């Protein structure tokens, strides 16, 4: 596939994508979407997002638990605040924020994730063509 990939950095307790992903992390229903699971979205650093975009990803989807429902108490709030520039470290000013999507989902919201991810993949590919 020559299309640029979209990387999803996802909390393992957010939307349950196990049945939607191959063993390598590719999402079966959304071509070019690759999932990287982390114990908590609070582990996501802006540098990880910047590195993915610099390495050629069309976009990055940050997915955590619903705000107020973090298993580790504050992880989802920390990354949300970093993405909004309200907490350090934040994204560098030159990062194209149109290429980043943040979703805050509960475990059973797989279909919502897939729907929003598919729409975002199509959107960022148009931006990067």
Automatic annotation (TrEMBL):
Domain F420-non-reducing hydrogenase iron-sulfur subunit D per the UniProt entry, residue ranges: 6-127
Presence of the UniProt keyword Transcription regulation in the record: no
Keywords: Iron, Iron-sulfur, Metal-binding, Oxidoreductase
Gene Ontology terms for molecular function: iron-sulfur cluster binding; metal ion binding; oxidoreductase activity
Pfam families per the UniProt record, alphabetical: FlpD (PF02662)
Tagged with keyword RNA-binding: no
InterPro entries for the chain: MvhD/FlpD
Name of the molecule in the record: Hydrogenase iron-sulfur subunit
């Amino acid at each position: 596939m020559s299309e640029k990939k979209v990387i999803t950095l996802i909390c393992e307790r957010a939307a349950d994508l196990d049945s939607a992903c191959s063993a390598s992390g590719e999402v079966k229903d959304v071509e070019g979407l690759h999932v990287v699971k982390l114990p908590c979205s609070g582990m996501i650093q802006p540098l990880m997002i910047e590195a993915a975009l610099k390495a050629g990803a069309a976009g990055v989807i940050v997915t955590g638990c619903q705000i107020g429902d973090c298993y580790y108490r504050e992880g989802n709030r920390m990354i949300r605040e970093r993405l909004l520039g309200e907490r350090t470290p934040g994204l560098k000013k030159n990062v194209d924020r149109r290429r980043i999507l943040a979703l805050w989902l509960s475990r059973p919201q797989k279909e919502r994730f897939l729907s929003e991810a598919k729409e975002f993949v199509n959107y960022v590919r148009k931006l990067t063509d």
